[in-house]
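A note from the maintainers: we've had questions about how concatenated examples are separated. There is no special marker in the raw files; a new sequence line simply starts the next protein. For clarity in this README we add a label.
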Amino acid sequence: MYWGISGVDVDEYRNIVSMLSGIPSLNEKYSFFYDETGNIRKFRLTNNGVNADEGIANDFILGGVLFKGDTPSCDLDLLYDELKIIAPEIKFKTLAGRRSDFWTAIGKKPIHKFLIWLENSGLYIHYATLNNMYYSIVDMVDSLFVTQPQFNFGLEWAQSLKASWHRFVLDHIDEILAIFYRYDYPSLAKADIKDFCYELSDFIQSYSEDDFYLENFRQLLKTNGRKGELLFIEDNTPGLLVEEYSGLRAGRCALYKDSMHYFDEEAEAESSLEVMPFTMNGEKLNNYKFIDSKVE
């Protein structure tokens, strides 16, 4: 919502998120520790699809543990002793074995011991996730509502349209990506919007899928073709679907403004938060630090 915009008051952002989600803002002080997986740096179109197929198959996930206040109640030495591990960090493969999936791992004794320790540790688990393809295409729905606000019937309606459109894209990923690439998505030229909308509309119709929301999306798309506008997919970088993941990091800091957030030392993460978009009491929000997790 606010990524790329600087000087946004953190309470203004939190109030909007609370209003849209129905979840009250959390003002207690916690210590958040983060790790991340699925960071492909940039996700962009190429002449034969995308630069990283794993960006389609996997989400970017930012997660970890947190505890109340500044001092953890957990005993890490007890965990290491219980598991009989001598290593700077504990990884999934250390407990479950290198080739274990979830279903085989869940029966392993080291996993049981870890979960029992975790349950009694006083730690909470947290995570946020970003689906690269969903993030790359939902602006189309929001663009349709800019020119046709009379058909925006609320958050649940918009989410249903986005979900149906996303499912269709995944089912026809090669064809859709080829269309996107041909039109320099997500930076359409004004002169191409009509043809882009009509081509996508015809492509969706050719499959005659029995999906109420997808059909409504198609009809809105066709109308926008006549209007020649798709506000949020104009004037961007051609072919660049996801530039980076600073939004999730900054968003966690903003939602839990009274907490301290500890991220792994990592050049891309550090540079992304140098341009923190949120302010508190007129000053840049500065409730985060970078640590070397292998040392800590």
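[label: protein 2]
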Amino acid sequence: MNQVAEKDAAEIRAAISGMDRAWNAHDMKAYVSYMTEDADWVNVVGMWWKGRDQVYRAHEAYHRTIFKHRQLHEPETVSLRSIASDVVIATIVQTADGFTTPDGHVEPPGRAVLTEVFVRREGEWLLAEGHNTTIVEAAQRSNPVKN
């Protein structure tokens, strides 16, 4: 059951691209429009937002402040795996611009790996769960398992 039908893969990839475009336009209403009402999101520092409204409010706040100039770049990798009927896991590796934290610390550009669970609801693929993890490049060099 791991393969994703071509039509479904295209629709999920389009949703991922749409979310990226919304992020880069700092349009968080459009960003969360790709999510289920009950979507959860865990960000890179472990904040867990429950439901599309919380995800929206958190992203809206950060896009008015520390992320107001941050851009996402074209994903290096988008891997899709079906785990059940109408459920697909997307694993995405992506680079993003740096940003400045509220205390003035400058975070350089970096890479992240995202795990996103998409579900088909009423014929539309929507994100139901997202988890964003910063890739620590030094740790990657010592990884005993290479992909």
